[in-house]
Amino acid sequence: MTHIRNTPPFPKKAPVDAQARCTHRERDEHYAHVIANPSPRYRVILCTQRLQWIIQEKEASHEAPWRAEDYHTSRDSLLKACGKRGLLSDPNSEAVLHALPDHVSQLAKK
After folding, report:
1. Within-domain flag for 4
2. How many whole angstroms separate alpha carbon 23 and alpha carbon 45?
3. Which domain does 81 fall in, by range?
4. Closest by CA position to 56, among listed 74, 37, 32, 80
5. Is residue 47 part of a domain?
């Protein structure tokens, strides 16, 4: 004879905060080291090894991953590439990019 156990219902999923969703994969929407989002289709990230800044473009589909366009180790080359793409029109993103050190190697190691 089988007995039915008195078990509580499955718990509802707790809301996930933004920090919990951050990933270490550069192509992911919630990559942990995004430096600036100057436009909906472009962003600037710090690579996982902290060796370079990468300008990424979002694929046409909303579900598609981010794709690397340019790799930079100096702030000047990063700013020049962003300027060519028209990504310095957002004052907040421009200020963040100008505040970066001269070279990515100058970032504090964590």
Report:
1. no
2. 13
3. 22-98
4. 37
5. yes
